[in-house]
């Protein structure tokens, strides 16, 4: 019971990691989304990434969509595959397959963490780095599929550090109660 509580806590806490409007646009499921820049939220039906379970999206500080992902492909705000954005190591059937975190101290770089599915023999935890200044401001994946750890559970969370600048990335090892935390700072991932 304790491990389910901790997992749920980490999953819910990801909503509080970012500035208020960076999570205002969601894309998920069968190419649909929600725009929380208005109240009530406006349904979106222009998405291009299809996802059975996990997905993530990132907006700028004003709530304008930057990009979104289903864990396998990154779509830019034009709903086209981002440069070098195909073939990420997430999975359509992973409950928490991806988390996007702004790089501490840099307003145009983002880490996209991905995790595979339990149905895969060795589920890997990896990261990608996106530079939003590339491709004329539509972004590009400039570092791709760097494996941090293998044999992990399909759970992934990001939690702001108490210094309000850095971010903890938390995963769970496969078939254990063991959690691993990685600190993301302006110097990179520890």
What does this structure look like?
The protein is mostly beta strands and 190 residues long. 6% of the residues lie in helices and 45% in strands. It is built from one helix and 15 strands. It has one helix at residues 2-13, and strands spanning 25-28, 32-35, 42-44, 56-59, 65-69, 73-76, 81-86, 98-102, 109-115, 124-131, 140-150, 152-160, 167-173, 179-185, 188-189. The strands form four sheets. Strands 4-5-6-7 form a four-stranded antiparallel β-sheet, with no helix packed on it. A four-stranded antiparallel β-sheet has the order 8-9-10-11, with no helix packed on it. Strand 4 (56-59) and strand 5 (65-69) form a beta hairpin. The radius of gyration is 15 Å and the shape is globular. The model is unreliable at 4-19 (pLDDT under 50).
Task: Classify the beta-strand content into a percent band.
Answer: over 45%
Number of strands: 15
Cα-based radius of gyration, to the nearest Å = 15 Å
Q: Low-confidence parts, pLDDT < 50 over ≥5 residues?
A: 4-19
* Approximate shape: globular
Strand order of the largest sheet: 4-5-6-7
Give the H and E element order.
HEEEEEEEEEEEEEEE
Number of helices: 1
Could you report the average pLDDT, rounded to the nearest whole number?
84
Largest sheet: 4 strands, antiparallel
Distance between the termini: 29 Å
Helix content: under 10%
- Broad structural category: mainly beta
